[in-house]
Structures are given as structure tokens and as C-alpha cells.
Amino acid sequence: MLEELRITGLGVIEDATLPLGPGLTVITGETGAGKTMVVTSLNLLFGGRADAGRVRADPGRATVDGRLTLPRHVRAAVESRIADAGAEVDDDGTLLMSRTLTAEGRSRAHVGGRTVPVSLLTEVGERVFALHGQSDQLRLLRPAEQRAALDRYAGPEHEKLLGQFTELYTRWRAVEDDLADRRANARQRTQEAELLRLGLDEISRVDPQPGEDELLREEAQRLEHVEGLRTAAQLAHVALSGTGDGEDVPDVLGLIATARRTLEAQTGVDRVLGELAARLDEVATLAGDVSTELGTYLASLDADPGRLQEIYERRAALRALTRKYAEDVDGVVAWADRARTRLAELDTSDELLDELDRERQRLHGEVADLAAVLSAARQEAAGRFAADVTVELAGLAMPHARIEVVVVPKPAGSGPTIPTASGVDSGVGPDGGDDIELRLLPHPGAPAQPLQKGASGGELSRVMLAIEVVFAGAGGPPTLVFDEVDSGVGGTAAVEIGKRLARLAREHQVLVVTHLPQVAAFADRHLVVAKDTSGAVTTSGVRVVEHTDRARELARMLAGLPDSDLGIAHAEELLSVADREKTRA
């Protein structure tokens, strides 16, 4: 649930805070006062597209802040996702979200006090927020949206079945495309494979090992400078150990031993000299180790011209490979690995083509079978969906209207097809082999017409609301926002829409931007967006109206006469009727 929304620097709104809460909240105001900016801010907060043209010139930055309380059924999933981004829910269980947009078009998002990608706002929004406006009504006219609506209504098991079908369809199409490509491009594939085999043969004859070029370089350098290395090591060894060509040479180890004995002799007088003597003992040990290792090193040095020649030849062979295939030996090894993988992809042997063809036929049969199961599930859900929406339409002052949900096979076109039970091929896509069409019978005797042809603006608004009420019974996001979905509606139908929204608000937080007093009367909280043109710049603010102020706002909406006693009396009567209906429902 969205507890509070703060908007600064967006459109006509300079700085406004909307206190929100459970139940039904309506937002009203004069045309141009900024109601649209409230909806725009909600869309921004939950990751919607940013329009820099909405940002006020002063201060040149718009910010939308929201405080949410996460319901139990989505809290664990949301907390897990935002934790991946380093954010967290506050100790009191609320989540702070923010979106900032500059006049230059730069956008930043924050969740739980951490900077996050805007996509994270979208992910959170998908779980907690749904916006329905007149553009959503237009989306409902598209067949793909109608199919998605039916699949959503059918429930989680159906959506799981749809996911399985999509995965199977993707595998089938991948095998189909692979087989077609191998057959159509057999000559090019064979030529490419031959070149790869030649390269692999050349590399396998040399058999390069990872890091071999660097090891050979180091070994060659030692052999090329063996005499200089031997002289340096010998001089150092003599200096440390005193062993030379029969001569008595002063050595480091002997001098250290003399110094240690001299200091130890004075330990009884001053313990500091004793500590220094102990440290000289450590120095002697280290020097002895170095002397021993130098001796070993000298024994290992061997001027081997034959070995040096072998290294030169090996490095020349490796350089021949690196000139053709990569910058270094490791790159050549990697090229060979990629070439072996590519060879498998280029295979156009009859055996492989036959195997792929069998796999294609098997998957095609499974797709057809699962498409039939999916279609049967949609047929069953279509009847229930149509019945439930029709019941809701009866409560929205369309007592004689009826909704039909028609499930028909996709027409077979240039794309993939599957056989149907009737023996006629139908088209198929990743969402199955069905086309879905919502049809409206506005009154008895009228022919059923597709929504895009048979529904007026007011009827489409009510169909949309009826569908949302049906969806709400199956769960869905906890916060629903309706942006003037009552457009084109009035009279009794408007009262019925108010009733349905109030009923919807029992299980959801419902925010409604409306111009109808009949709808606004059913609100649990009434917010008014008011324009202030007293200064040089037009600004808008938001305030909560109650009691007399609320009746005055309804009177303004009814007749444009907020100060009329008759208008206020009419508004108070409307409020009383709404209270009775809410109690009775």
C-alpha cells in the first residue's frame, strides 16, 4: 500500500504531499489543475517513461518520493529483489522509493536509500501497482491484450501450462530453423568446415600448451646468458661462504659469526647487545640459506647448445601459429576450442540431418498436442470469464449487456502451422494456436460485435472496470490506480461505477482520478488538486477535503457552484446515498 506521495517540480505542481491510505481515495480538481501530474508522478515512481518536458524550469529538477507498506504476499519477493541491489526495508516495514528527473533528461532512482537502476522501480511496481487509464482501454481492443487478459484470469496453473508451451515452441522452432539452415547452406558450411579442419590439423601437429611461449622465452634467455649468470652466482656464493679457488677469502658468514660472538661476550653487561646478537643469528641463517640455493643454482646451470636450438625451433613453430590464429599461444588454444565447437554446428551429414528431422517432427507433434490442451483450457476459462464480466456489467447499469469470449484457431499464414482436431491447419505462435476476441452484446437482439466495433467510450470504460473487478477477486497488485476510466459515463452508470470502486477498495488500495461527483461521493478519502494563479507562475497544490469542504467540492463538480446552498444540499444528499450504499453492499 502506498502511504504517502510527495511531488516537487513536476508540471504545475511545485511541491505537494498526498497523504494516502487504505480504501478508496479520489482525486478531483478543475481541468488543468494538475490531476494528470499526480498520475504521471505515480507512473514515474514505478519506473515509467520519463518526459523531461514535464520538469518545471525552476528548479530544473522534478522529484517523486513514495513510502510503501508491503503486503505479506509480495513482501518476501520484493525484499529479496531489492536486497540484491543493496537496499532494504525500514525497521517499521516501510519501503522508501524515489525518482528524480532533470530538465536535461537525466533520471535517477533510489530504493531504501540506495541508488538503483530505474528497472528496479519497474520490478517493484509490477508487484504492488497497476495503472488503468484510457490508454489501457485502447490496449484492451488489441487481440494480444485480450488473450493476455484471458490467460491471466485462468489462473496460475494455466499460466504454468502456457510457460511450458512457450518453452516447447521455442525448442521446436530452434530445431526447425537449424535444420533449414543446414540444408539451405550445405555448400557454404562444407567449405567453412574444411578450412577449420585444416587449421585444427596444423595446430594439432604443433600441439601448443597454455603459457608455453612464455616459459620457452624465459628458458632461452637463461641459456643465452649462461656464462654471465654463472659468474654472478659464483661471485655471490664466494662472498657469502668464502669458498673459492683454494684461496682464503673473507666471507659474509664468517664475519657475521665474529660479530655475533663479540656481542654475546658483552651480554652480561648490557642485554641490548644480547638482543642484537640474536638478530645476527637470524641474519646468518638467512645468508646460509641463500648460499645453499646459489650452490644449487650453479649446479643446474648448463650451457646446452642442443637444447637452445630445440627452443628456437619450437618458438618458431609457435610463432607460425600466432601469426595465423591469435596473438599468443593461449589465444591459439582458444581458437582451436572454438573451431571444434563450430565444426559440430557445421555438420551437414545425412545422419545428422535425418536425426534433426526426426527431432523436428517429434517436437512438432508435442507442440500440436500441448496447443490442443492449452486451447481447451482457454475454452473452459472463456466461459467463466464471460459469465463473471457479464455479472459485473449488470451492476454497472448495463443489465442487458453480455460479454462473449471467443476462442478460435489462428489463421494459417506464412508462419508455422499445426494440425487441429478438425483436420485443418492453424497458425501457431509462442502463445499457442488461439486467437481471442472479446465481443459485446449491448442489449437483447443486437448482434455480438468485437469491442473495437461494438462498444462506445462509456461502455468500454465499464467493460474495463468490470474486468478489473473480476481480476481483483483473484488477487493482483495491492494498489490500483484508475485515471478517468469513467470518461463518457454519467447518471445511474456513474453511481454504479462508484459502488464497484468502493467494493474493489475493500481488498485493495484504490486511487481514482475522476470528474464525476457520483464516483467521488464513494471515497474514503477525498483529495483536491487546486491551482494557484495569484503569482507570476501558476502552481498547484493538493489538500484533503472533509465535511463541508467536501460537499462544496462535490457541488462544484455537480454544477460549478461551490457556494450555492442548493448545490451543497444536493452534494450532501449524494454523500448520504453513497454512505448508505457502502454500508449496504
From TrEMBL:
Gene3D superfamilies: P-loop containing nucleotide triphosphate hydrolases (3.40.50.300). Residues 346-373 form a coiled coil. It holds the Pfam family SMC_N. The keyword ATP-binding applies. Keywords: ATP-binding, Coiled coil, DNA damage, DNA repair, Nucleotide-binding. Signal peptide: none annotated. Residues 2-534 form the RecF/RecN/SMC N-terminal domain. It comes from the Bacteria. May be involved in recombinational repair of damaged DNA. Belongs to the RecN family. PANTHER family: DNA REPAIR PROTEIN RECN (PTHR11059). This is DNA repair protein RecN. It comes from Dactylosporangium salmoneum. The gene is recN.
